[in-house]
Amino acid sequence: MGDKPPVGVEEEFHVVDLVTRRLTPQADALLDRLPEAGFSKELQRAVVETNTRPAVALEDIRDELLTLRRALFDAGEPLGVGVIASGTAPLPGLAGFTLTPDDRYQYLSDTYQLLAREQLICGTQVHVEIDDRDVAVAAAQRVAPWLPVLLALSASSPYWAGTDSGYASSRALAWQRWPTAGPVGPYGSAADYDQTVADLVASGVIEDAGMIYFDVRLSSHVPTLELRVCDSCPMLDDVVLLAGLFRALVVRESAAAVAGDPPRGDPRPALLRAATWRAARSGLEGHLLGPEDGRPRPAATLVQEVLADLRPTLEALGDWDLLTDLAAAALARGSSAARQRTAAGPEAAVDLLLNETGRH
Predict the structure, then answer these.
(1) 252 CB-near residues (< 8 Å, 6+ apart)
(2) H or E segment to which residue 15 belongs
(3) What share of the chain is helix, strand, coil (3-state, %, to 5)?
(4) Does residue 1 lie in a domain region?
(5) What is the CATH number of the domain that holds 242?
(6) Which of 137, 173, 291, 298 has the fewest CB atoms within 10 Å, i.e. the most exposed one?
(7) How many domains, in total, are found in the chain?
């Protein structure tokens, strides 16, 4: 891993009918109007994914994300559809569960049943390049206590099946039901990690390494560490903020692991799960648990503490000024979940999300 490792972002979007504002299984039609590079299908035919190329500068990531979003809207307009970046869609679709034709997706549907049928959720994934797998495994565990803060910043899924779930991220609850989801570790080396993956595949519970859904995982096909806890974010600047914070955490904790410094955060899985639940419940509008002491304090306070703690790393990466501005803006407007709740019902929340996803 270099001094400033490249980062890449995957965004998932719900496809919605612009008249009914409901989910519509037209991802295939949308993808037919787009190039293969940068766009891909998902399990449900009402979801589409975009993928950036790796880049060092966060500004370059933002530019490419913007280009991909604009292409989605341009392709969808003649079809009468748009896309929204949110963990769940405020309104369900009229067509119900519509599986994308694909052998792998059919396997997921047949094997996981309810989990697959309710997998109408969208996330933001961030990849940070890291070449040494032993260091990557150590870093994955060391960054884990800070991930609930990133989930809270992304929280955008208050609605589940058309009703208010009471959570800022109902997507996080749905995701945690999968058999390989949740905290990573403990592992002493890449060999330990790989053996666990191999044992899970041998158990028959999952088919291959691509079905490892840890909160942060080693990619099964590229030399990256991948963040997987976050909702999709309608505001593009929030995606850039998440990418920058995650990269800084990986850089700091990788260096600490190489130096032999003891982990700073509380690694106990029970505390990590509790912190994740707290972030999913409250988003930015309640309390979060401190990554080192496990004690609750206001989300805004904790975000500012994390920024201050990461300042030396962010300054070394050249990202301090950008990320402090983006974090201040995110805290000032509150979570997407809170903004959706201030809209006049789920239909108005869809309109809000269409506007925020496409307005940049």
Answers:
(1) 310, 313
(2) strand 7-17
(3) 50, 15, 35
(4) no
(5) 3.30.590.20
(6) 298
(7) 1
